[in-house]
Structures are given as C-alpha cells and as structure tokens.
Backbone:
C-alpha cells in the first residue's frame, strides 16, 4: 500500500531546517493594519451575542434596508499585521528563513502592530500603512480598505530608502523574492518594469524563485490586467516565476487570456492552471480554492486536497499562508505535489490556530493528515 502524500512530504522535509536557515527571502511591498471583525446578528446581553455566520444574511439585511436605514454592530476580534506581503513574510519567517521586508509599515516610526514582526525580520519601511476592516463570516469575508498611503509605494520613494545598488544586492542574496498585491499598489506595474530593466540584468548565478500575485484584480481594467500578465511573462527571462491565484482570480485572469472559466472541481481547476501556464510561459501557476489547491509546471499538473475546516478561527491571511507554504516547499526541493501539500498544511494550521506554524508545528500537523 502506497504511503500518503503527507508522510512522503515529511521525508522531503528532511534537512529543511538547515536549508531554510540559508535561504534568504525578500518580500514586499504592501503593509496594512488589519482589524478582524464579526457582525452581531442578535445581542443577548452586554457580553453575549450571536454572530452572523453567513454572508448572505448580512447581504439580506442590507438589501432590506434599501431606501430606509439600518444599524449594524461590529465586534473587533483582533488587530493584527496585515497586507499580503507582511502576512506571507511573517509565515516564511516562522519556518526559519531570514526575511527582509520592504513596504509601508509606518513612517517615520514602525506602526506598533508590526513591532514583533520587525524584531524577527529586517524591515525597511517607506510609508505609512494602509488599513483594512476584515468582516469575517463562516463562508467568506469582506475586506474594506483605506488605501491612501499606498500611493507612496513607487520607484522614486523606494530608492529614497534603498539606493539602487543596495536593492540589487538584496535581490542578489535572496533565494526567493515575493512581490505581491499588484491590484492595490497603483505603481507596482512601473516598479516591476524598473526591476526588469535595472535590477534583474545585474543578477548573477542561478535563477531565483520570484513569487507574484495580483490580489483580486476585479477592480482593474482588462487592459491593465493584460499589461500585468505580459510583465509577469517577461520576468521569466531572469527568474523562476511562480504566479499565485485564488479560484476567482484564476477565472479573472483566464478571461483576460481568452480561456473558459473552470467550475470548482479539482480536475477543471488543475487543467485551468495548466492552460494559464501555457499562455504565460512561466515556471509555475498555482490556484488555491478553499478545499484544495492545484498547480502546473514543466513536470505536469496536479492537485492536492486541503485539510478543510468548517469552523476556522481566522480566514484573513489563509491564502498568504498557503503561498508561503508552497514557496517553502519549492525552497527545500519538494516536487509539485509536495509543495502543494506544504501549502495547504500551512494554511490549514493557520486557520485552526490563528498563528503561523513553525517547522515543528508543520511536521506534527502533517502527521495528523
């Protein structure tokens, strides 16, 4: 009887601590203060209430108030570091990788919510953070953002804080670079172009892993998305490019590329990942719905079931933890299925425990699957 994938991955993680301690990572460029919120459905007392569990219940209450008014009570569950970059970087650091983070974590001083993160990573902050109210339900979440400070994430401001030669050195020393949240950073496309023309040609040695995501591009025009995808393909000349997508993002990207939208079945999503890969001609495309994850690279395409839970402690940041786990798998030499398994296990642990797993936590969690 063949061994299950989680047990095979445990073997692939042999020696991971030593590998990860030498694998420097560079992550950027966003930064948010996240407030995790529940909506009160029924207030029983000053300390007791029933939470709205379903997004449709919230939607129906809003719809019923059209033309009238309504009052909603929000209860703060926690205030935490946020943004695709900081959450992903924090998860990567928990596995023992030396992390350098560049983004908007506070200026002139680091915002207190990032204080612990800054103790465990090298942090270069170039602007004030954005703010997000994450209204969480059992079947999804609404991310309500305040993004004014994100305009400060641009090439000129970046070079004010990191001279170009130092930026090249950061790329040169890194085994993995992750540049995330294209959608919310208006100047990210221009930054990508500067990296391609001024940084990437100066790099020597083997190609580094470059993880990119778009982060819900629905509010960007098809022309903007097409331009971003063309830029992503250009990165492949100098990097081993990984494009990370959730299911809805994969459908949006597929639409721009002229591909039919997949349903939510594993086989269809896996085939869709392979079709996107063929269009973009990059190293890897990863698609992570809630219940499983799929990926395609030069070796083929596959999917792995996730350790789904119907009662997560937290969902905001689950995708970023998956991305971190998948990249950890790539860094330690796991195959495609193994990297997916590390990704879904990292996300599965996080939503159950509301914290990033360490390598020991991951191994114990894999033993239960």
Residues:
């Amino acid at each position: 009887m063949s061994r299950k994938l989680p047990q095979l991955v445990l073997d692939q993680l042999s020696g991971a601590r030593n590998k990860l301690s030498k694998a420097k990572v560079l992550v950027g460029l966003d930064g948010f203060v996240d407030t995790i919120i529940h909506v009160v459905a029924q207030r029983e007392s000053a300390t007791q209430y029933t939470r709205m569990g379903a997004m449709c219940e919230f939607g129906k209450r809003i719809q019923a108030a059209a033309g009238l008014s309504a009052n909603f009570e929000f209860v703060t569950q926690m205030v935490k570091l946020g943004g695709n970059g900081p959450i992903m970087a924090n998860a990567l650091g928990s596995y023992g990788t030396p992390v350098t983070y560049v983004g908007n974590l506070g200026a002139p001083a680091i915002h207190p919510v990032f204080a612990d993160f800054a103790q465990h990573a090298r942090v270069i902050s170039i602007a004030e953070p954005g703010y997000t109210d994450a209204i969480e339900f059992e079947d999804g979440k609404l991310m309500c953002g305040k993004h004014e400070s994100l305009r400060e994430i641009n090439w000129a401001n970046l070079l004010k804080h990191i001279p170009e030669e130092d930026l090249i050195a950061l790329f040169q020393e890194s085994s993995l670079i992750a540049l995330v949240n294209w959608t919310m950073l208006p100047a990210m496309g221009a930054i990508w172009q500067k990296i391609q023309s001024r940084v990437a040609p100066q790099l020597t040695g083997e190609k580094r892993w470059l993880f990119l995501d778009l982060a819900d591009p629905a509010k960007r025009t098809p022309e903007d998305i097409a331009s971003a995808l063309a830029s992503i393909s250009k990165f492949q000349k100098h990097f081993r490019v990984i494009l990370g997508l959730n299911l809805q993002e994969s459908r949006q990207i597929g639409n721009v590329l002229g591909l039919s939208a997949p349903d939510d079945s594993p086989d269809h999503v896996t085939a869709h990942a392979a079709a996107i890969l063929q269009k973009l001609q990059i190293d890897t495309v990863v698609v992570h719905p809630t219940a499983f994850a799929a990926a395609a690279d030069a070796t083929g395409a596959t999917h792995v079931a996730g350790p789904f839970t119907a009662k997560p402690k937290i969902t905001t940041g689950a995708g970023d933890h998956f991305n971190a786990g998948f990249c950890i798998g790539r860094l330690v030499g796991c195959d495609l299925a193994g990297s997916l398994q590390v990704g879904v296990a990292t996300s599965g642990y996080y939503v159950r425990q509301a914290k990033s797993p360490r390598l020991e936590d991951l191994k114990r969690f894999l033993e239960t699957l």
The domain at 5-33+81-367 is CATH 3.40.1190.20 (UDP-N-acetylmuramoyl-L-alanine:D-glutamate ligase). The first strand starts at residue 25 and ends at 29. The chain has a mean pLDDT of 96.
